[in-house]
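Students often ask why we bother encoding 3D structure as a string. The short answer is that it lets us treat folding as translation between two languages. Here is a chain of 443 residues written in the first language.
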Amino acid sequence: MIDFLNHMEAEAVAMGNHEFDYTYQSLSEQLKPKNFSVLCCNVFEKATGMLPAFAEEYRIFTHRGRKIGLIGVDTPETAGISFEKNVKDLIFCQPEPIVKPLIKLLRKSGVDFIILLSHLGYDADIKFASQVEGIDLIIGGHSHKLTKEFTWAPPFNTPIAHPGSSCETTSIIYIDLTDAASPILRLESVPLYVDTIGQDLKTKALEDSYLDELRIEMQRKVGESRVHLSRGISGGDSPEGSLIADAMRAASGADFAFINFGGVRQPFAKGPITVEDVFMVQPFDNVIEVIEMNGFMIRNLIEKAYSNESRAMDNADRGDAKDQHRINGDGIKLMVGAPFGILLPSGMQITYDPSLPPMKRVLKLTTMDGKELEAEKVYRVAFNDFIAEGGDGFTYLRDLPNHKKLPVLVRDALIKHIEDMKVIEKRPEKRVFNVKLREELFD
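And here it is in the second language, the structure alphabet:
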């Protein structure tokens, strides 16, 4: 990725949680050949209290006589959604108290326009904009949301733009600072279809240098789907998540299995499914880990997994559900992030009301054949090792006895599951019933 960013002649990038998919030491080594600024003002080394050596709080660029300041922030959730061994040497702080004095510093330095490069996520960006005055534009990521027009966040009317994910689109933002006191902004969301915009030969050559040795295996067909499968609306049912959880349960022989909502990435489109497609859905090297839990513990786990703050879907949410997930949806969704990750099940059905108080939302919890879980009965429950070792806020799971880590990658289990199915004729049976959310799936 560093080679590609250098090739693109990027000026500055923000850090995100996936920069820490490997160790901090590995990240530091990988960034040595960078020709761009890495902006992040809220991540510090535990040992020194300083920013990482490769990072800067902000950068000031001058363009046609105007000064533009860029500040970078990463989500504090990184500490909980990354493997502990990868972030144990770092502190991830709340960005608001750090950004506020930086805004004052930039204004005193004569900066005309301040841009926040944010990896907080869409909902968190809206909340941030309500608490911090002086940001002229937020360009955000993390939640994989595509905004085709600005979201103007109250009370300071802060424009927010999110470009989606996986380089499927790019957001071009035109900033007219002829009158610095009244900047004019225009957002253009451009789909990056090769047959429309063409290929850059130098970029293609760089890509080929990495892909040649992987191409044969990555293009191998493992199955076919007759339906579109995506992770769905947060807090709703997830056809794709159900497929992954089913694969984990089949590979482990567990009674139940859970995949975290944040661990479900690209959708499966209708048509052939290749190894590369599976890598796009499950790019992580997580293995399956089985924990013994009784019915009472499982219900408590589900209450936690569906206890996040909820809110009504807005127009951007409805558009995102339709464009990204092939869902006509409306109602109340869950916000993604702290305190817990949303867990998507295999082997059980969950009915809940997101408008009720946290930890009192689950209305019904049964096996797929309608049987209530027995409070004292011990079940075998499969997770990926990220969750089993305390990720996404489930820190107490790592302290439970009777863990068994299997030498099976979740990705490999998914490949085998699809190979065994050969053709996915229909979406998995619905498992998550949000009584305040309407979901109509289409292909």
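Translate back mentally: The chain has a mean pLDDT of 92. Keep this in mind for the problem set.
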